[in-house]
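Quick start: what a row looks like.
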Amino acid sequence: MLKEIYSVPIRKEKCFSTHENQTSVRFTVFEGERSKATDNNLLGEFILEARGVTNLKGCFDIDENGVMNVSAEHVGTGLKNKISITNYKGRLSEKEMEKMVKDAEK
């Protein structure tokens, strides 16, 4: 896997569309190196209501204090939802992170 190196603070945005019969979008944020999301550590999640085919803009923003803000906006209506993830809530310890990295390398 090729890893990109970024400096902090950083902001990344991505636009995407929902399916015709979709009524909401669940945004889940994980920490880890595994290819399957369920094998990583869940940091948080939120739901954005989005009825029918709509355009959404998702944003990951990490500030100079290491706080990650994940937000989503319904482009047509401006409806938004977000979550802030700090270094203190739900994060893995150094030891747990090292173990996950070693397991992922196997």
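That is the whole record. The longest strand covers residues 41-49. Residues 94-105 form the longest helix (12 residues).
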